[in-house]
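pls ignore typos typing on phone
guanosine-5'-diphosphate + seq
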Amino acid sequence: MTKGKFDVLLGLQWGDEGKGKVVDVLTPRYDVVARFQGGPNAGHTLIFDDKKFVLRSIPSGVFQGDKTNIIGNGMVLDAALFQAEAEALEAAGIDLKSRLLISKKAHLILPTHRLLDSALEASKGSAKVGTTGRGIGPTYTDKAARTGLRVGDLLRSDFEERYARIRAAHERTLKSLNFEYELSSIESKWREGIAYMKSFCLVDSEHYLNKILREGKKTLCEGAQGTMLDVDFGSYPYVTSSNTICAGACTGLGVAPHNIGKVFGIMKAYCTRVGSGPFPTELFDADGEAMCDRGFEFGAVTGRRRRCGWIDLVALRYAIRLNGVTDLILMKSDVLDTFKTVKACVAYGLPDGTETDEFPFDCEAVKPLYEEFPGWLTDLTKVTGEDEFPEEFNSYISFLEEYLETPVSIVSVGPDRKQTVFRKL
Ligand code: GDP
Ligand code: IMO
Ligand code: MG
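k done
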């Protein structure tokens, strides 16, 4: 870890890699944890002391003492969902108001944004993205169109007029899509949420973060979703609406690129995806079923069954290069404990008969080409140190490090905070 730097932790696949767990594990090494993009489309699971929490908009550093947690300007916030999430934490004994700051520049997800998300998805028929339905796309659309409302706008005297204007525009679109809706009950919960949100410390978080940087303090920037869902580099248009890559931490927090230290890239030992879109290594067989069942691969936000497949090293190396990953974190290897053979996709066969190990513009029609490894057939969940790893597992890790040209610094062997093995960190 570099002194007075911003380290970044982000997903390298299609999300749900285990970001929440590792942010919680690493938090004691930092002064501040700051989320830089996304909103309540995220579901970050933390398990410790036989308790389980799923965080959506609140950073995953809130359970480790009195660290400061920041909701950054790059995020989009639904006041009603924020209130439900925050009150659940307060009920669990977390003194949230003393440790959470919210950027005034974060954008507000309005009740009509959620309706628009559903209406637009419905209008797409079979080409639907399979969004989480939380209004993420429409909110970022308004941000880019310069018609959005921000958390800081809540403090303005003309907030209601601004809100009425944008709501009317949204309602015109909903009507043009022939979408039936009922706004008043969602709106009244949202208004309650807004009053609650105003009781938090609303700040210019870019000033705060740069000040603590000058004081030599350390911030861990927490990403949401994953690199293959990035709006520029992911499997467009089956992506989310923000930059999930490392550069997103710069724009989503006000961090200068040269102040970024380590970049932790998280990946599962296999791969999952929820929602529509291409997934070259997807399995439709017993191995895929076993990954889903053993890995309990159901969406933390929507409960949808996650699609499962082998690890895709072509997509991972692409993700590592885009992010400048310095350290890999390997998650959920224990899910493969019972597999006699473990596969890794090392190249794609293209429709014209050639092969590539570079991630192509279009990955819809590629055929994954695999390298096979003997399984480790050992219960990894009980392992407490690297010296207990079976030989087959060590060989698998060495292969990953060589192909991906990046060291694996942390290996997670179970969902609990304690089931974490540090290797080179
Ligand atoms: P995130 O969105 O990246 O924070 O990941 P999610 O919380 O959506 O999904 C990760 C899931 O895997 C959660 O249910 C975690 O409790 C669980 N998990 C995390 N690490 C491990 C691990 O090493 N092994 C197993 N078996 N489960 C894990
Ligand atoms: P975490 O942070 C997995 C997916 C949705 C859909 C696409 C667009 O828990 O890893 P959106 O609602 O963002 O417009 O949906 O992105 N998606 C995620 N998949 N993990 C997530 O977050 C996701 N957030 C969005 O399923 O395919
Ligand atoms: Mg998740």
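The mean pLDDT is 96. The longest strand covers residues 260-268. more later
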